[in-house]
Specification:
Elements lengths: L5 E5 L22 E8 L11 E4 L2 E2 L5 H4 L10 E2 L11 E5 L3 E3 L5 H4 L2 H14 L6 E5 L3 H12 L4 E5 L5
Parallel strand pairs: 8-9
Antiparallel strand pairs: 1-2, 1-6, 2-3, 3-7, 4-5
Helix pairs in contact: 3-4
Length: about 170
């Protein structure tokens, strides 16, 4: 991919962006991100400057053995926005055009929950949980909280969530 295939997204700075993280190597966290297209490369056709977009947080390399077998979720060289490159807490991020999706007037705080909600819904499908189940859920991040709500809505009798404490 060359520079002409990328676009820059600016993020709304109205929201509180303070954070604490045990991962000191993070320069700008923000795995889930939504913002406004600020600049585009000459090959970008799916969005225009000013479009509001949500961004896919993981960019597979498309060259490793997993990617060439269409198993990009297992990519050995994945770029993780908000992990090993700046994420949505940065003022600007550069994404490949194929990784952004227009969101219209959907508010930022709702748009960033689309990916965690999809992951939680996928988790519910995989669980094949029975009504009345007792569930222990590990992880209280955005996806874990959404999954806990879906578990309860799908008939669990008891839900207990746990997470690692960060000092």
């Amino acid at each position: 991919m060359n520079k002409a295939d990328f676009l820059e997204v600016s993020f709304d700075t109205r929201y509180e962006r303070s954070f604490t993280s045990p991962h000191t190597s993070l320069t700008s966290p923000g795995h889930e991100a939504a913002g406004t297209v600020a600049a585009i490369g000459k090959n970008v056709k799916n969005v225009v400057i000013g479009d509001r977009v949500a961004a896919d947080a993981l960019q597979p390399c498309l060259n490793c053995s997993y990617c060439t077998r269409r198993k990009t979720q297992l990519c050995e060289n994945v770029i993780g926005y908000g992990g090993n490159v700046p994420g949505g807490f940065a003022e600007y991020c550069r994404y490949p055009a194929r990784m952004v999706f227009t969101i219209g007037n959907l508010p930022d705080l709702e748009a960033v929950l689309l990916e965690p909600a999809a992951c939680a819904a996928h988790g519910i499908e995989r669980m094949q949980m029975e009504v009345g189940s007792r569930v222990l859920l590990f992880g209280c991040g955005p996806t874990g909280i959404l999954l806990a709500q879906l578990i309860k809505m799908n008939g669990a009798a008891h839900v207990c969530s746990t997470s690692k404490a960060y000092a």
